[in-house]
Structure formats: structure tokens, C-alpha cells
Amino acid sequence: MKSIEELRSEIDRIDEEIVKLVAMRVGLVKEIADVKMEKCLKLVNPSREAYVLTRVRGLSSELGINPDHVELLFRIVMMICLKEELMYVEERCGHRCCREDG
Question: Domains of the chain, with CATH numbers?
Fold first, then answer.
């Protein structure tokens, strides 16, 4: 049996990986923001958000994790990404330069 210290050390490594993955997701979101600005698309895409939530709920069920909890986690991750995207767009344009309703 592993000690509590060993288990916590493993959790710390996993936490670090989660933060790195969120950073990678934010980087991709910024690349998507460039495309959205170029094509004058809305920043928010409700159908994409619904797809992501449905997908992660299914994955969580397959892995034996409560889908409601995973959905909550991903709603937070998507909110973080949207805030990062908005800051990125405002930084690049000096204001929101996508469609008014996005």
C-alpha cells in the first residue's frame, strides 16, 4: 500500500498536468479567436459548447465518474477559456472586433 505522501505526490503531478492541459486549451482557443476575428464570427458558439458538454458527460460515464460533476468542471474550463479569449481579442483589437452579438 502506498503512503499518503506518495498518493498526494501523485495527485500533485496530476494537478500539474491538468494546469498544463488547460494552458494548451487556452492557446488553441486563442488560435480559434484569430480565425473568428478574420472571418468576423461570434466568439460564443452555443452548439459547440453543447457538443463539448455532451461528449464529456459520455466520457465521464464510461470512466465511472459522475457526469454532473464533470459537466460542472468543463463549464468552468469553458468559462476560463472564454474569458481568456475575450482578453486576447480585446488586446489584439483594442476592443471587441467580432460581431456585436458575439
Answer: 4-93 (1.20.59.10)
